Amino acid sequence: MPLSGGGTRRGAPVIVGVNSRHVHRTDVTDEIDVSDCRRCEKLCASRSRIVNGVGPTDAALCFVGEAPGEREDDTGEPFVGRSGEVLDGALRDLGLARGDVRITNCARCRPPDNRDPTAEELTNCRPHLEGEIDAVDPDVIVTLGKVPSEHLLGRSVPVTAEAGSVHDVRIAGATRRVLVCVHPAATLYDPSQRETFASALESAVELVDGGGDQSRLGEF
Questions:
Q1: b vs e for 181-197, b when ≥16 Cβ sit within 10 Å of the residue's Cβ?
Q2: Among 94, 78, 80, 79, which Cα is nearest to 2's?
Q3: What's this model's pTM, rounded to 2 decimal places?
Q4: What structural domains does the chain harbor?
């Protein structure tokens, strides 16, 4: 069903398939949350806490970033700084709330000085990410930025050029649809990326609404 009074940037109505699963499976939270991990010595030393994913454990749309930053490390929730504000605003523009989607990271611990996670750190944390994706079983995974895009696609990714592109990728024993997106922070230092970011998110919502089974498209 269309959102009441809602519309996309192109003027087409948004369908509420993204937030339409009827029962949020909170019983799997213990399965996908990581309470202790010592695989990465440097990350254990730099982190204040492990930052697990947030959002419904049956979300149709899952956003994957690279790693927590300072604010995320302080609060224990991904994408709560300025980048999170950009993401939240873009979701609102599409008629969605932050609580309608799953948000997580490739690495669950803050790297020193907010550097990118190393290949070894990404590999060490991959089982946690795959376990979360397997449990949530989203219709679409959106990679926010270069690190998660290259990590999940397994190749070099020119993110701006490929933003909005969809790829079938084998993750956690199943073929998943992965949509490439620029990082929301890119819109803060390069305003020309705002339309690229918004368009990619709109494509992700349309992909969920147009490609999910009917049991996941009913309204709350």
A1: bbbbbbbeeeeebbebb
A2: 94
A3: 0.86
A4: 26-212 (3.40.470.10)
Separation between Cα atoms, residue 202 and residue 181, nearest integer Å: 11
Q: E strands of the chain, at which residues?
A: 61-65, 102-105, 140-144, 166-171, 174-181
- How far apart, in whole angstroms, are the C-alpha atoms of residue 65 and residue 184? 10
Alpha-carbon dihedral angle through residues 121, 25, 200, 204, given to the nearest 10 degrees = 130
pLDDT tens for the 220 residues of the chain, in order: 222 233 344 443 344 455 555 445 545 677 789 999 999 999 999 999 999 999 999 999 999 999 999 999 999 999 999 999 999 999 999 999 999 999 999 999 999 999 999 999 999 999 999 999 999 999 999 999 999 999 999 999 999 999 999 999 999 999 999 999 999 999 999 999 999 999 999 999 999 988 644 334 233 2
